[in-house]
């Protein structure tokens, strides 16, 4: 065996093999050398384009990063005053809906989910609030472009390359290359994913689609992706529907549903997913999409059922496990949630978030020894972006233990990591109020509300302080805001009723 | 306020009356119970204490399970980090254009540093 000559690939074959082994930077170097020798080698050129675009590839289905302008200034919503339950803006507020006391909400006012998704599309609150919120690691949100993050990635990769831009898009003969089926896909992906010049990408897709006599579903999907990025949602829908008539693809169904979500039509999105499920039974993408929509609508039962179906099909789906676990935890079954989180741990994920969650589940399930070690582990490994949440939860543990001074310290540490952490502000305010420092408590509650106006606890607690101080008018205003967040809260209703005679007496 | 609490009291008493009615009205059922087939707990009005007062206390925010990161989020963050690192390297080469751009990008992107460098003093005298 040892006498056999070692076969060493050279040239284009080597680049191809490196590419297939996903060693993209090495493949790119080989391609660059080949292109220096022969700049007109189209195969190498296409391969290098592929290498570059693969290095910055992001699944377009999952990529829902939106800028402020798209979130708050868009005019795409078809029905601005929708019936409850048919819009992300107006989830059902019945008894089985969101109970903000049981399940906390994010700073944007969405109920907390098991996983972070770049899904700020489902806005809540006002532009005013979003602008006022300080920009930190977590809230950094680009003001304008949809693809702000990608745009920056593109610029960065340009700047890093010593030779400058690989393809000069301004000088390239687009009609020639975009119509050439040998290279146009690579060129498109390069422009779309690497350069992030969506206008040029759209032009390429348009020319290519025309060259394929409008019969290639691939190009229709790519055109739709461009329209989605450019915010032209109607055109995206048209392209996707026409693509579906040609050929049913999972990606097409998912993109179509995404488009419906963007125009705030969750029912249409659910219908699209259901059609997708008819064509591809028990498909994970479709089921996950349905589960997400149901969750955003506050239908946790339905959402969990979909996630369970996901888990039947794909038992290592972390998103599904985490979402099921979260719902169990807030449904008062922390032991079961613990089992789900432990399953994620078994699969080899060991992030500080996970350890913190396991710690919280253990604590709620009375397994104190393991709770403590998990929380210590989370604290030791935490990164800056979760530090505030970790400290906040440590504060909760301290409150449960009864060590209130330490709890107050933990909350303040959370606030140094994230000055906008409204939950910490509220809980610190309660502790201050207990100490009799009412003014400090008032200002803490007040700043919590200014960070997150939709928050139930902040409004309610400040209302209590106001009522105790005799500031009934302010109290009534706050109670009304609290009732917006949680319309069925009994104490709020009672307080409102007790305030009514004061107004009538005048 | 008083009305609601009275309502609660009435329903509680109502339930008790019903349970008493079954107790006295249907002797057969009780007989079966004596054989241990079916056990029921009965509450009598004069054996109970009914507390009406309830204080309104501030509501704590609940423990917050931290959302895990999806693969896409992780990948985006990773890519962004890598690109930032790539940008940091040419800065040393004193390449004017690149360093200007990278500074611009840094200012734009390194917003988190506001929360890192800001050394807020959380300890106060009374702790």
UniProtKB/TrEMBL annotation, chain A:
Gene3D superfamilies: Tetratricopeptide repeat domain (1.25.40.10). GO terms for biological process: chemotaxis; intraciliary transport; non-motile cilium assembly; olfactory learning; positive regulation of intraciliary anterograde transport; positive regulation of intraciliary retrograde transport; positive regulation of protein localization to ciliary membrane; protein localization to microvillus membrane. One of its GO terms (cellular component) is ciliary base. PROSITE patterns: TPR. It comes from the Eukaryota. InterPro entries: BBS8, TPR-like_helical_dom_sf, TPR_rpt. This is CRE-BBS-8 protein. It comes from Caenorhabditis remanei. The gene is Cre-bbs-8.
UniProtKB/TrEMBL annotation, chain B:
This is Uncharacterized protein. Residues 104-121 have a biased composition (Basic and acidic residues). It comes from Caenorhabditis remanei (Caenorhabditis vulgaris). Pfam families: BBIP10. Residues 81-127 are annotated as: Disordered. One of its GO terms (cellular component) is BBSome. GO terms for biological process: cilium assembly; receptor localization to non-motile cilium. It comes from the Eukaryota.
């Amino acid at each position: 065996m040892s006498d056999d000559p070692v076969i060493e690939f050279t040239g284009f074959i080597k680049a191809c093999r490196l590419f297939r082994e996903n060693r993209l930077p090495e493949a790119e170097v080989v391609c660059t050398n080949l292109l220096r020798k022969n700049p007109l080698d189209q195969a190498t050129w296409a391969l290098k384009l592929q290498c570059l675009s693969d290095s910055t590839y992001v699944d377009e289905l999952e990529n829902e990063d939106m800028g402020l302008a798209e979130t708050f200034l868009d005019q795409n919503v078809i029905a601005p005053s929708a019936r409850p339950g048919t819009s992300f803006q107006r989830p059902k507020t019945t008894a089985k809906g969101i109970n903000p006391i049981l399940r906390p909400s994010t700073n944007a006012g969405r109920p907390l989910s098991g996983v972070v998704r770049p899904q700020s599309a489902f806005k809540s609150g006002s532009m005013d609030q979003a602008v006022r919120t300080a920009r930190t690691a977590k809230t950094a949100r680009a003001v304008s472009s949809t693809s702000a993050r990608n745009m920056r990635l593109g610029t960065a990769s340009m700047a890093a390359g010593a030779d400058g831009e690989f393809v000069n898009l301004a000088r390239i003969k687009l009609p020639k290359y975009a119509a050439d089926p040998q290279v146009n896909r690579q060129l498109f992906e390069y422009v779309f994913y690497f350069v992030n010049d969506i206008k040029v990408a759209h032009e390429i897709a348009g020319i290519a689609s025309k060259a394929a006599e409008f019969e290639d579903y691939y190009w229709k999907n790519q055109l739709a992706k461009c329209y989605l990025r450019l915010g032209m949602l109607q055109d995206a829908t048209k392209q996707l529907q026409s693509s579906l008539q040609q050929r049913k693809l999972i990606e097409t169904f998912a993109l179509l549903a995404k488009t419906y979500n963007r125009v705030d039509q969750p029912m249409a999105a659910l219908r699209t997913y259901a059609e997708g499920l008819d064509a591809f039974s028990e498909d994970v993408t479709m089921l996950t999409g349905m589960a997400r929509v149901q969750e955003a609508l506050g239908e946790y039962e339905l959402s969990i059922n979909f996630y369970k179906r996901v888990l039947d099909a794909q038992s290592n789906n972390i998103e599904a496990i985490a979402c099921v676990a979260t719902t169990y935890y807030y449904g008062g079954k922390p032991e079961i949630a613990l089992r789900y989180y432990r399953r994620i741990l078994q699969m080899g994920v060991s992030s500080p978030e996970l350890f913190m969650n396991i710690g919280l589940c253990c604590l709620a399930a009375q397994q104190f020894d393991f709770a403590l070690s998990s929380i210590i582990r989370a604290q030791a490994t935490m990164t800056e972006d979760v530090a505030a949440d970790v400290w906040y939860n440590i504060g909760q543990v301290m409150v449960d233990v009864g060590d209130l001074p330490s709890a107050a310290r933990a909350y303040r540490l959370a606030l140094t990591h994230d000055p906008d952490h409204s939950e910490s502000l509220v809980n610190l305010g309660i502790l201050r109020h207990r100490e009799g420092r009412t003014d400090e408590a008032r200002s803490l509650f007040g700043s919590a509300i200014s960070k997150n106006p939709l928050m139930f606890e902040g409004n309610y607690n400040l209302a209590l302080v106001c009522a105790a101080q005799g500031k009934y008018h302010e109290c009534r205003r706050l109670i009304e805001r609290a009732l917006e967040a949680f319309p069925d809260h009994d104490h709020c209703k009672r307080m409102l009723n007790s305030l009514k005679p004061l107004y009538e007496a005048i | 306020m008083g009305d609601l609490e009275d309502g609660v009291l009435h329903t509680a008493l109502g339930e008790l009356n019903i349970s008493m009615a079954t107790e006295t009205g249907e002797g057969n059922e009780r007989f079966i119970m004596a054989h241990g087939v079916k056990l029921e707990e009965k509450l009598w009005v004069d054996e109970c204490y009914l507390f009406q007062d309830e204080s309104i206390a501030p509501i704590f925010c609940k423990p917050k399970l931290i959302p895990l990161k999806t693969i896409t989020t992780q990948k985006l963050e990773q890519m962004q980090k890598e690109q930032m690192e790539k940008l940091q390297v040419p800065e040393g080469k004193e390449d004017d254009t690149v360093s200007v751009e990278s500074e611009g990008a840094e200012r734009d992107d390194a917003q988190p540093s506001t929360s890192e460098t800001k050394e807020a003093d959380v300890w106060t005298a009374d702790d």
